[in-house]
Amino acid sequence: MHHKNKSLIFLLVGLAILVLGAVVLAGCAKAPRRAPQPTVAAAPHAQGLTPEAKACIDCHAKETPGIVNDWDHSKHAQAGVTCLDCHETTPDSPMLLKDIKGHENVKASLSMLVPPSTCAKCHPNEVKQFDASGHHRAALQVENKDKMQALIHHHEGRDLEGLDGTTEETGCAQCHGKRIKVDEHGIPTADTYPAAGIGNIYPNGEVGNCTVCHTRHKFDIAEARKPDACATCHLGPDHPDIEIYQDTKHGQIYAAEGSTWKWDSPPGDWEPGDYRAPTCATCHMSGIGDLKPTHNVSERLYWNAWAPLSKPRNSDDPMSPLTGHAEQGRAEMKQVCLQCHSSAMVDDYFASADKGVELYNKAYFEPAKQMLDELKAKGLLKTDKWAPWDDEFQNLYYHLWHHAGRRARQGALMGAPDWAHWHGFFELQQMLDKMQDIYNYRMETGEIEKP
Ligand code: HEC
Ligand code: HEC
Ligand code: HEC
Ligand code: HEC
Ligand code: HEC
Ligand code: HEC
Ligand code: HEC
Ligand code: HEC
User: Fold this and answer.
1) Are residues 334 and 277 in the same domain?
2) Mean pLDDT, to the nearest integer, of 438-445?
3) pTM of the full predicted structure?
4) Cβ distance 265 to 288 under 8 Å?
């Protein structure tokens, strides 16, 4: 009896739970996709909003709460720089948004794309400096060079109609940038967007992407000062700069205690004491001591350490492989080091680093190039449809300067012994030996070896 009663109670409770569950589920199905958000809580840090600007925020707090939250935690929100300040454009803009669902009552002319000239209205110096840097040419030079287009479309894309640009979309463009096209609504097309690359080319011809180091919509100075900001692009076998950094005492100190440093001091006022060791930004961009901050990352360089043959920089043209001025660049870089090290140590350091570049130039690149030129003159390089990449000699030549050679030079210049040596000079030596064997065979037999 006692037992039976208990089962009955369980049965009733179970039924009640089932019914309740069904009611809740049915309610959910009818409820709006997202719970309505209180408009004040959506942007509690924003200052001085006009009713027009508030309308964007009210609605986007429901539609894209992540964007509004990021913006609300930015200096822009505190300074009353709103969605409209960046997304409003002229009615004749080639990027104008048209017939956007949700924008039926929006009167302003808007664009989804925000080119650097918009930032330049309030930050003219940063844009001018960026435009003078090697970052400016990142997409332009990929677009302009036949060899690179052949690599992307023919070799890697295998000439497959509709798929032949895939490696550019998923690879090159995400670091270098891309010429962005828009559809009839002003929305960027899938084959050109999203392009997270640094040198995007906008439909009005402007170049640059300010969101790669301080991401939208927070536009945070602290984020840009951390090495991670550069690491999305500056890594891997051909320019392992983040790996190089991690191989230095600076990188080790950053890993050990970087989370405790002060990252948000105003530009020109971020000094040793806020941090103990430099990051990529400290050496290449930030103000330190008497040195002014710059968005021109080519300014503090002596060599072009990515080129087949490294030479001292001596040009004001951002499209030139030699953009920058060697002596002035070196003097400025030394100014960075001298805030924490003595001139004796810094001079000694660069004496060895420069020897690394010269050894690469003389002992590895020049002999490799000479063999290449001689084989070419004798018609002993492959020239078929899949050349040069199906030719072992030309493949080695590419890996010599583009991979191992860059690792050796950048490892030496940034003080990373594993990259300078084991991934650098040691590999160079092995590659040159192999090239020498192939060269000898072709010169002796007068023919290209069969696999
Ligand atoms: C009544 C709601 C509403 C208002 C007001 C509104 N938007 Fe939108 N907005 C939307 C919706 C919905 C989308 C489309 C989102 C999507 O595709 O996921 C959108 C898209 C956008 C886009 C990207 C373009 C696209 O098609 O994806 C931008 C930029 C934008 N809005 C900016 C603004 C600005 C600036 C304002 C104020 C002038 C504003 N919005 C006002 C609802 C609104
Ligand atoms: C300081 C300038 C700035 C402000 C302020 C700003 N945006 Fe943007 N927004 C950008 C930039 C830059 C992009 C990237 C577009 C590009 O690639 O050109 C962007 C992209 C977008 C996109 C499309 C891309 C995506 O991630 O979906 C939406 C939607 C958008 N913004 C909405 C807003 C809204 C809503 C606000 C206000 C809460 C706002 N923006 C404030 C600069 C700004
Ligand atoms: C209407 C003027 C205006 C526009 C347009 C504008 N900004 Fe700003 N920006 C400001 C103001 C004001 C501040 C705050 C300065 C301060 O607090 O010292 C600021 C601060 C910043 C900061 C420093 C944030 C920090 O953490 O200290 C960055 C980075 C920045 N803006 C990037 C951009 C980029 C990139 C664009 C274009 C996509 C842009 N801004 C467009 C006015 C503008
Ligand atoms: C979104 C990708 C991306 C990010 C992020 C990025 N870079 Fe670059 N960087 C590039 C590309 C691509 C090039 C090569 C441009 C060219 O020569 O065409 C480059 C080139 C350079 C150069 C050589 C310039 C020259 O004149 O040869 C330096 C130095 C540099 N970057 C430093 C930095 C630093 C420091 C950071 C972080 C604060 C950074 N980059 C963030 C993509 C990026
Ligand atoms: C992971 C990001 C990334 C990808 C993907 C990438 N690059 Fe780069 N590229 C860089 C960086 C960073 C540099 C700068 C190297 C340096 O300064 O040492 C660079 C340098 C270059 C340079 C030499 C600089 C110059 O001005 O001539 C060329 C050319 C180049 N890349 C072309 C390409 C092409 C073409 C592709 C795709 C087939 C590609 N890259 C893919 C990041 C990338
Ligand atoms: C390669 C990475 C990188 C790119 C690309 C970049 N920035 Fe910056 N930005 C930084 C760093 C790092 C700082 C902090 C410099 C310092 O420590 O003084 C900064 C600081 C700023 C500041 C704050 C300076 C001030 O005086 O308040 C503004 C504004 C700014 N950037 C705007 C821009 C604009 C506009 C663009 C596009 C043309 C841009 N940035 C592109 C890395 C970058
Ligand atoms: C301690 C200062 C320091 C730090 C930290 C540092 N670099 Fe460098 N970097 C240098 C020096 C010095 C050179 C060589 C300059 C020259 O040509 O004399 C260099 C060269 C480079 C080059 C080669 C440019 C070319 O001509 O190909 C790139 C790219 C680069 N650095 C990116 C980075 C990135 C990304 C980080 C962070 C992951 C970083 N650096 C960290 C000092 C530094
Ligand atoms: C913000 C201060 C700071 C700056 C700027 C700085 N360094 Fe350092 N560096 C350090 C600290 C701290 C160490 C660790 C010292 C130790 O190992 O006892 C260090 C270590 C080194 C080491 C390892 C040497 C050793 O004996 O352990 C080299 C090499 C070096 N730095 C070179 C440079 C060069 C070159 C520059 C400029 C391009 C530079 N540093 C800029 C703080 C700095």
Assistant:
1) yes
2) 98
3) 0.94
4) no
